[in-house]
Amino acid sequence: MKAAVVTKPYQVEIEEREIPEIAQDEVLIKVERAGICGSDLHLYKGTHAFRKPPAVLGHEISGTVCRTGAKVTKFQVGDRVTVEPQVGCGNCEFCKSGHVNLCTGKRVPGTPSWTGTFVEYFNAPEQAVYKLNDQISFEVGALVEPLAVAVQALDQITGTSKNSMAILGSGTIGLLVLAAAKHRGYQDIYCTDTAPFNRELALKLGAKAAYDPLETDVAEQIKKETNGKGVDACVIAAGAPNIVDQASAVTKKLGEVVLVSMITKEIPVYTYSFVFNEQKLLGTMTYTTEAFEEAARLINEGLDVGAVITHELPLEETGRGLEILDKKTENAGKILVHL
Ligand SMILES: NC(=O)c1ccc[n+]([C@@H]2O[C@H](COP(=O)([O-])OP(=O)(O)OC[C@H]3O[C@@H](n4cnc5c(N)ncnc54)[C@H](O)[C@@H]3O)[C@@H](O)[C@H]2O)c1
Ligand SMILES: [Zn+2]
Ligand SMILES: [Zn+2]
Questions:
Q1: CA–CA dist 221, 228 (Å, integer)
Q2: Atom 12, ligand 1: residue with shortest CA distance
Q3: What is the pLDDT of residue 226?
Q4: With pLDDT > 70 as the criterion, what percentage of the chain qualifies?
């Protein structure tokens, strides 16, 4: 079968690989769509923490079950599915408390023990496989994984007031947070993005306003919109040196800031603003199985998130897709490859 492999930094080759053997508890999936995500970009650039070239790209997937192991009970050949791309060790304190996302021994795609999803056939244990309803396209089905990131981000918020939210950064993740937050009942959602294309997408997905942080004093504007109070919660889905301070400044007293973006450089933070306003700064890491289940349910119930998909490329053009995201040569949201 064909596989898109990062052979060395900035080089993607289509290589022949063996179709994976399946264990008794696994299914084999004929891949239909696989999404390019920020972590694939890190693998591509050679900067990923543990996915190192040579490695098969991808962890986002939709497809059809084409073979089932002897012990598989929930799936049949022909089922349309997506996969939660993590299998915890099952024994550590995090796995035992439902935080498989934090398990240091978890198995993930694109590593020596599990192929990535940019392949024609992908194996997965049935416990990690989720059905997609017949009316859900494979394109939207491939968005369950990034939507799970958004669900997990919202799950960090403990406050129950849902009058308003700010989302700093309207890339794929910020936009999916927007869709999921609207579904959860947040009324007025203010988005930011430096790119006009992304601000337009935010408005299309129901943001009350979308600001360019380079032109608008975001804190002042959002305070004005919220009668001087600030929003109930703010989600950070972009990286910039002032982004955490901006988040604190747009958030109300006792409000919560969820940090989704993976900012690996040190940035200055005016901690006093969190202290003075008794705000919480919360990290969020991928998703628990519970959040993934909810994302799959939201998609199956018809949550309309297809607008974040901007490109569909054949597997052979995976390298081009990565280049578009890396060099920002075109307006892009989620880029899918099809097989
Ligand atoms: N915590 C997790 O588990 C997790 C999971 C997935 C992604 N992430 C992280 O979330 C972040 C967003 O992911 P994405 O896939 O949406 O990335 P993306 O690159 O598609 O989106 C980022 C957006 O931020 C915008 N932007 C840049 N500077 C800005 C600024 N100063 N203010 C507002 N917007 C600005 C960009 O124009 C872009 O649209 C990344 O840092 C990614 O690594 C975290
Ligand atoms: Zn992803
Ligand atoms: Zn574990």
A1: 9
A2: 237
A3: 98
A4: 100
Range of the domain at 54: 2-147+287-338
Residues composing the chain: 339
CATH number, position 90: 3.90.180.10
Say how many Å lie between the CA of residue 107 and the centre of ligand 3: 9
278 shares its domain with 295? no
Is 246 close to ligand 1, i.e. is its CB under 6 Å away?
A: no
Q: Are residues 182 and 279 in the same domain?
A: yes
113 located within any domain: yes
d(CA 69, CA 76): 10
Q: Is 262 in the pocket of ligand 1 (CB under 6 A)?
A: yes
Written as one letter, the residue type at 261 is S
Atom of ligand 1 nearest to the CA of 168: 33
Is residue 305 one of the residues assigned to a domain? yes
Give the total number of structural domains in the chain.
2
Ligand (nearest to CA of 87): 3
User: Which pLDDT does position 53 carry in this prediction?
Assistant: 93
What residues does the ion ligand 3 have nearby, CB within 5 Å? 88-89, 92, 95, 103
Q: For 121, how many CA atoms within 13 A lie in the half-sphere containing its CB?
A: 15
Instruction: Find the ligand nearest to 40 CA.
Output: 2
pLDDT at 5: 98
- The protein residue with its alpha carbon nearest to ligand 1, atom 3, reads 286
Q: CB under 8 Å to 308, separation ≥6 — which residues?
A: 143, 172, 175, 176, 201, 205, 333, 334
How much is the pLDDT for 49?
Answer: 85
Do 19 and 49 touch, CB atoms closer than 8 A? no
- Reported confidence tier of residue 108, pLDDT bands at 50, 70, 90: very high
> Is position 183 within any domain?
yes
- The protein residue whose alpha carbon is closest to atom 40 in ligand 1 is 261
What value does the mean pLDDT take over residues 201-223?
98
Decide if 276 is inside a domain. Answer: yes
Statement to judge: residues 35 and 93 lie in one domain = yes
Alpha carbon of 59 to ligand 3 centroid (Å): 19
